[in-house]
Prior knowledge:
Elements: H1 2-16, E1 21-22, H2 23-33, H3 40-54, E2 58-64, E3 67-70, H4 75-88, E4 99-102, H5 104-110
Antiparallel strand pairs: 1-4, 2-3, 2-4
Helix pairs in contact: 1-2, 1-5, 2-3, 3-4
Amino acid sequence: MTAEIESIIDTLLREGLDDWLPVDTLLWHVREAFPAPPDRFKNLVPAVLHRLLADRLMMVGDLGESGFEPWEGTPEKTVERVIAGLETLGWEPLGGFCWLADTPQGAQRASGPEPRFKPPAA
């Protein structure tokens, strides 16, 4: 499972180089990596999000007049806030809840010569 989570993190960071990502993108990648059982992804989203925040790779925030406006708080409180919001929206935010943005550390990791995790050759 750790390899899959690292792959999701690398993918999100690469996608985040171009633009801010709706939280839907995180949900989609976790669902794709862990398709069965259907609700398993709900248990994994907090772990992936916490890693992104605790390792200072991405920030969570809103889009406002000044552009991306990061939320304040610890990684734990931010994860709690995101999960509570997702629960309220039935885990279908449709681009209308919160956004993810690469930090400088996340952008550096994403723009390195190759991802940290390489899937095994098939």
